[in-house]
From TrEMBL:
It comes from Pseudonocardia endophytica. Homotetramer. It comes from the Bacteria. Pfam families: Aldedh. This is aldehyde dehydrogenase (NAD(+)). Keywords: NAD, Oxidoreductase. The active site is at residue 262. It is an enzyme of class 1 (oxidoreductase).
Amino acid sequence: MADTLPGTDDIQARALRALGRIGLDRPVGDGLRARTPITGGKLVDVPVTTPDAADRAVAEAHDAFRIWRTTPAPRRGELVRRLGDLLREHREDLADLITAEAGKIHSESLGEVQEMVDICDFAVGQSRQLYGRTIASERPGHRLAETWHPLGVVGVISAFNFPAAVWSWNTAIALVCGDTVVWKPSELTPLVSLAASHLLERAASDVGAPTAVHRLLLGDREVGERLVDDPRVALVSATGSTRMGREVGPRVAARFGRSLLELGGNNASVVGRSADLELALPGIVFAAAGTAGQRCTTLRRLIVHRDVADELLDRLTTAYRTLPIGDPFSDGTLVGPLITRSAADTMDRALARARDDGGTALVGGGRRFADVAPDAAYVEPSIVRMPEQTDVVREETFAPVLHVLTYDDFDEAIALNNAVPHGFSSSVFTRDQQEAERFLAADGSDCGIANVNVGTSGAEIGGAFGGEKETGGGRESGSDAWRGYMRRATNTVNYDDRLTLAQNVSFL
Ligand code: UN1
């Protein structure tokens, strides 16, 4: 691993080469600045979508929906299959752009593209499995069934930390479900968005699908608000902070639109007395320090049995001390930069509050590369031992701070896990089957994701992904999450020659 950072010029050249291979010229226009968190420098200016253009994009996607919804689902799958092929072909290019704009280490960027490929494969299979049920009717000569139909335009609002994968979970599923998509990505990652969107446009023209099945809106909040308030947008799938969800959810509901919210997490792992620490250690370090603590599934709280706390913390602090921090393009780096300097300031404030609450910082918390890259933010992931679960521990700080609490009794561990406003991801490290099952039971973890002997982050796409409470309740990706992107019609068909009323009602 190099202990220097690349120059902004090198990163810019690399990003432009990747864009070029994907088929895009250097963007012309302004309004939005693509920058790299690796140096904090400017990559290129990008044109923004005006509010009028945003309205037009929704209108076009709405028109395309009328064609797309009657295209047979397995044919719609062909578009997604082609997108998957192009993603495989441009895996490295898209990963380069993700690392350049989001600062993710290269292997995690490749992993993000792999998630995109995986969801495309999944969605292609799903395109032949949009099953409804046949239900036993109480009336003679009647058939009761349900049919799933396309819903409409899906508005996708996504965040900087998974700038491409979150779009693909929504888009691949929405497209096979017969919906069209308008995407408002984070303004921090415009180049990734242009690239992903262009690959889908290429796929559409390759298979002869209308290109307006997808539209990209680049801009800030004002553009996103267009999607939120437009009655032609049937579903708004929004990923971001709980604060954002608190605004989006009620606004979409006010017009009786649907929303799918994937918001913050304050995820915990319980480490039981019997835990295999050899296995727990890498699981914890990846979940807490990976992606520089910027996943919504990042491990933020460790709830450790008192008997193993000292040994585990010794080993954890040792591992943290040697974590390679630096250029995310460089092999061997495990922790790249935070997205902005203000994210690092937020981390500093959280650490100060934890100290005020009686916490002891065991490791980390300092800055790196401040002299060579004053506009970037490289932080040392930190572990803070807390006397109790105070306010700062119950809040989500989007940075690599791991708060550690100890417990004596397993009930107490579950109570601590659940005593936060969020309900995203959770896990238990234990070799005790009773503990594992209790953690997964109805009165165990209250999160959308509950794991055993695995960390909180890094979910596979095959499961439904999302969480409870202030995480927003939405589910995207695999399992039956596709149903959220369709409307259900219940059909009663009478093939008798008499009219029989339900519930034995007699009339006429
Ligand atoms: C996110 O941070 O918004 O489970 C998504 C994970 C990844 C997705 C994270 N598959 O950590």
